[in-house]
Structure formats: C-alpha cells, structure tokens
Write a sequence for this structure.
C-alpha cells in the first residue's frame, strides 16, 4: 500500500528522479575520486620532479660558485701574468738599451783601436826612420871621431 500512496501522490516519480540523481552523483563521485587519485599521483610525481630540480639547482649553484671562484682566480693570475710580462718587457728594453750602448762603446773602441794602430804604425815607421838616421849619424860620428883622431895625430905631428 505504500507504493500505491506513492503513485497517487506522485512520490514514485520524485523517488525515481531522486534515485536517478543519486546514481548520477555516485557515478560523478566515483569519477571525482578517480580523478583525485590521479591528481594525487601526478602531484606526487610533480613533487618528486620539483625536488630533483631543486637538487639540480643546488648543484648548479655550487658549480656556479666554484666557477666564479675559479674565474676570479684566473683573473688574478691573468693580472699577475700581465704585471710579470710588463716587468719582463721593461727588463728586455733595459737590456736592449744596454746592448746598444755596449755596441756603441765597442764601435768607439774599434775606432780608437784603428786610430791607435795607425798611430803605432806611424810611430813604428818614425822609429825605424829615426834608427836609420841614428845609425847614419853614428857612422858619421865614428867617421868624424876617426877624422878627429887623424887630425889630432896630424896636429901632434905638426907640432913636433
């Protein structure tokens, strides 16, 4: 009789509609639960991926810091090498200047040596000429001494 009353008062149609709606809601709820599980799994995967990316990012920051330190060290070394190069260039320039001065000094000495050699040659020639003249004069002195001796003898003979 309960169904009869439901039919007369239209409750059966409402009940059917409500049962249909409940079925739809249960299906929708099941679908939402599946979607929630899927999203939970996807969220977990995304969290894992995010953690991995954070770890990689941390490693990259460490690598970046190390590279920055290495780069700073390389800049310092480059500056040190530039200073050393400048010092070596200054030393090279000073050495080249000294070499030029020594070459000029050597040329002056060669010129002086050539002049002294000429002067020595001229003095040697003059010395030879003087020796020859001295020998000639010595012969003349000997001849004059002999003549003087002869003249003294002749004078002594004449005075006798």
């Amino acid at each position: 009789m309960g169904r009869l009353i439901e039919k007369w008062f239209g409750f059966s149609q409402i009940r059917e509609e409500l049962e249909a709606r409940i079925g739809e809601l249960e299906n929708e709820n099941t679908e939402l639960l599946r979607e929630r599980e899927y999203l939970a799994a996807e969220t977990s995967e995304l969290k894992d991926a995010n953690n991995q990316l954070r770890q990689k990012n941390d490693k990259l920051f460490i690598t970046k810091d190390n590279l920055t330190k290495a780069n700073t060290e390389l800049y310092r070394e480059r500056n040190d090498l530039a200073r050393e190069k400048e010092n070596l260039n200054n030393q090279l320039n000073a050495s080249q200047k000294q070499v030029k001065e020594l070459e000029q000094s050597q040329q002056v000495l060669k010129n002086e040596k050539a002049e002294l050699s000429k002067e020595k040659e001229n003095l040697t020639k003059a010395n030879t000429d003087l020796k020859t003249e001295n020998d000639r004069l010595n012969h003349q002195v000997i001849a004059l001494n002999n003549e003087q001796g002869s003249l003294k003898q002749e004078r002594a003979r004449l005075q006798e």
User: Anything to note?
Assistant: The helical segments are 2-9, 11-159.
